[in-house]
Amino acid sequence: MIKDKYDIVIIGSGFSGIAAADILADHDLSILLIDENIHIGGQLLRKIPEELGEYPSYKPEKIKRIGFDFIDKVKQKKITLMNKTALLGVYENNELLIEYNREKTFTLKYDFILFATGARERFLPFKGWTLPGVYSTGMLQVLIKNFGVLPAKKMLMAGSGLFLFAAAYEYLKNGGKLLGIMEQSPFWNKVKFLPQFFHQSSKFLEGAGYISKILLSGVPVKFQRHVIEARGEKNLEEVVIGKLDKHGELISGTEKTYKTDTLVVGYGFVPNIEAPQMAGCQLEYCKEKGGWTVVVNDRMETNVENILAAGEITGIGGANKSLNEGKIAAYTILEKLGLMDKENLAPLFKKLKKERKHHMSFVKCFNSLYQIKPKTVLGIPDDTIVCRCESVDMKSIKDAVSMGCHDPNGLKMATRCTMGQCQGRTCAPVIYDLLQILCSRTPEETGLFSVRPPFKPVSISALNKSNKS
Ligand SMILES: Cc1cc2nc3c(=O)[nH]c(=O)nc-3n(C[C@H](O)[C@H](O)[C@H](O)COP(=O)(O)OP(=O)(O)OC[C@H]3O[C@@H](n4cnc5c(N)ncnc54)[C@H](O)[C@@H]3O)c2cc1C
Q1: In angstroms, what is the span from residue 313 Cα to ligand 1's centroid?
Q2: Residue where one domain finishes, among candidates 349, 366, 383
Q3: What is the whole-number distance in angstroms between the Cα of residue 138 and the centre of ligand 1?
Q4: How close is the Cα of 129 to the center of ligand 1, in Å?
Q5: Tens digits of residue pLDDT in 193-220
Q6: Which residue minimizes the CA distance to atom 33 of ligand 1?
C-alpha cells in the first residue's frame, strides 16, 4: 500500500538515487524510491534478466560492482521501492503526480524530495536519421545489457564522446564487427587536456582502455568525421561520412560512402531537468556541464526549500560523481532533520566535498572536449527532420525564426516542434543550439521550453484509475 505522504521521495534509482537511499534508510524514515525503468540501477547498472541467462563474458568492472552491491543493500532495507513508476508532475504544497506501470496514477506528498533523474542521450540530426537501421548508442547498450543481443553482426558507429567508445567496446567484446568509429571532435584537443586527465587517473585509464582495445582489434577510428547522410529505400543501406574542418564545417570532396545496414550514433548526454524545472528550481546553462543543469550549493540543495538534486542533472560527470553527490544529499537531509549532529557530519562533509571538487573539475574538462561546433549545427540541410515526432524539418525552423519566433515556446507554437510523444526529449537540445546560433542570443536570453505535466506519455486508462493500493 502506497502512503499519502513520505518523509523523503527520491526520483531516479541510478548511482545518486541508490547512494542516497542507502544512507537514509539507516534511520527511521519513510522513503519512497521510484524509477520509470524496469530495473533499479539507472543507466549504468543494467543486467540481463535472470530468465535470459548471463552472457559468458560478463565481468562487471569495479564501479559497477560497487553499484550492484548498493542495489543488494538497498533492496534489503526499509524503503518503498517502485520500478516502472514515473513522476509525471510536481505541484504546489509538496504534491507529486505519479504513474505506475501504465496502469494507474496517484498523488502523494513529501517533506523532502531528491531529484536524481540522471541524463539522456544527445542527438544531432542528419539526413536519414529516422531510417530503420539507425540506432542510438544507448539503444545498443540496452540491447546488449538488457536483452543479450546485438543489433547486427557488422555495423558503423559515429558521433562523439567517451560513451561512443564505451558502447563500441561492449559491442566488440560481445562478438560484433565494426566497419569503423567516426568521432566528430578533433584528436588534438584531447592532448591539451592531458595534465588534467592525470588528476582523474581512473577516468583516463577507462577511456584509454576502451580506445586501445578498439585499436588493437583493428577497427579504424577517425576523428573530425561527421555523418552527412544515412541512405536507403526502406531500411538503411549506406552511410555517407565527411571530414570537418577546425570550425566544424564540412570539407567538400571528403565524402566517403560505407555500405552497411546498421549505424549506431551518439553525441554524449544532456541532463534530465524537466522535473526540477517544474518544481521551480533554479537552472543554469553551462556548456562545460553538459547544457542546462540544476543549480545546487555544495550540500546539493536547490534554491527551493527541501528540494535537493544530485547526479548527472547537476553536470554530466559519470558514476563516481553521482555516487558522491547522492551521499552528500543524504547527509544534508539527515542534518536538516536533526538525525545526525553537526560534529559527526563535519568530517564526512569535508571528505565528500573535497572529492566533489575533483569530480567537478573533471566535468568541465571532459565536457569541453566534445562540444558540437555551431557551424556543424548550422550545416544541417534544410530537408532534414529535426523534431522526429512531429516531422518538423530544418527549413520550417529557419522560416519560423525569420518570421520572429526567437524563443523556444514561440517556435513550438509556430512549428509544433517538441509537441510530440517524446515532448522534446530528443530534439530540444539541438533546437536550443539552433535558436542561440540563428538569433545570436545567449542561452539565458533564449530560455527554455515550458514544462507541463505529464512529463511522460500517460494513458487515459491509467489516469482514470487513480488509487494507491
Ligand atoms: C543511455 C545511457 C547509457 C549510459 N551508459 C553508461 C555506461 O555504460 N558507462 C558509464 O560509465 N556511464 C554511462 N552512462 C552515464 C551514467 O548515466 C552515469 O555514469 C551515472 O550512472 C549516472 O547516475 P545518475 O544517478 O546521475 O543517473 P542515471 O543512472 O541516469 O539514473 C537516473 C534514473 O532516473 C530515472 N528517471 C528519470 N526521470 C524520471 C521520472 N520522471 N520518473 C521516474 N524515473 C525517472 C531514469 O529512469 C534513471 O534510471 C549512461 C547514460 C545514459 C543516458
Answers
A1: 10
A2: 366
A3: 10
A4: 24
A5: 666 666 666 667 777 788 888 988 999 9
A6: 12
pLDDT tens, position by position, 6-23: 999 999 999 999 999 999
Ligand 1 center–CA 434 separation, angstroms: 26
Q: Which amino acid is at 421?
A: Q
CA 302 / ligand 1 centre spacing (Å):
20
In a domain, 329, yes or no: yes
User: Same domain, yes or no, for 16 and 135?
Assistant: no
Contact 172, 140 (CB under 8 A): no
Range of the structural domain that residue 313 is part of: 5-120+270-366
pLDDT digits (tens, 9 = 90+) for 164-189: 999 999 999 999 999 999 999 988 77
* 29 has pLDDT over 90: yes
Amino acid of residue 379: G
Domain count, the chain: 3
Atom of ligand 1 at shortest distance to CA of 43? 29
Write down the pLDDT at residue 197.
Answer: 62
- DSSP designation for 250: B
Q: Report how far apart the first and last C-alpha atoms of the chain are (Å, whole number).
A: 5
Ligand 1 pocket list (CB less than 6 A): 11-17, 34-37, 42-44, 86-87, 116-121, 138, 141, 163, 166, 269, 272, 275, 311-312, 318-319, 322, 455
Task: Please give the single-letter amino acid code of residue 217.
Answer: S
What pLDDT was estimated at residue 49? 64
Q: Is the pLDDT of residue 421 over 70?
A: yes
Asked which of 266, 281, 308 is the last residue of a domain, the reply is 266
Q: Are the C-beta atoms of 300 and 332 separated by less than 8 Å?
A: yes
Q: Whose CA is nearest to atom 27 of ligand 1?
A: 118
pLDDT greater than 60 at residue 232: yes
Q: Closest Cα to atom 39, ligand 1: which residue?
A: 117
Residue 389 CA to residue 423 CA, distance in Å, equals 9
d(CA 159, CA 184): 6
pLDDT tens-digit readout, 108-140: 999 999 999 999 999 999 999 999 999 999 999
Residues 205 and 257 in one domain: yes
The closest residue, in CA terms, to atom 42 on ligand 1 is 86
Give 410 Cα–ligand 1 centroid separation in angstroms. Answer: 31
Are 132 and 113 members of one domain? no
pLDDT tens for residues 60-107? 778 888 999 999 999 999 999 999 999 999 999 999 999 999 899 999
In CATH, what number is assigned to the domain containing residue 135? 3.50.50.60
**Atom in ligand 1 nearest the alpha carbon of residue 310:** 26
Residue 237, exposed/middle/buried by CB under 10 A (0-12, 13-18, 19+)?
A: middle
- 279 plus 250 within the same structural domain: no
Position 464 in a domain: no
Cα(40)–Cα(70) distance, integer angstroms:
10
Q: Are residues 258 and 180 in the same domain?
A: yes
Q: Grid coordinates in use for 384?
A: 532534414
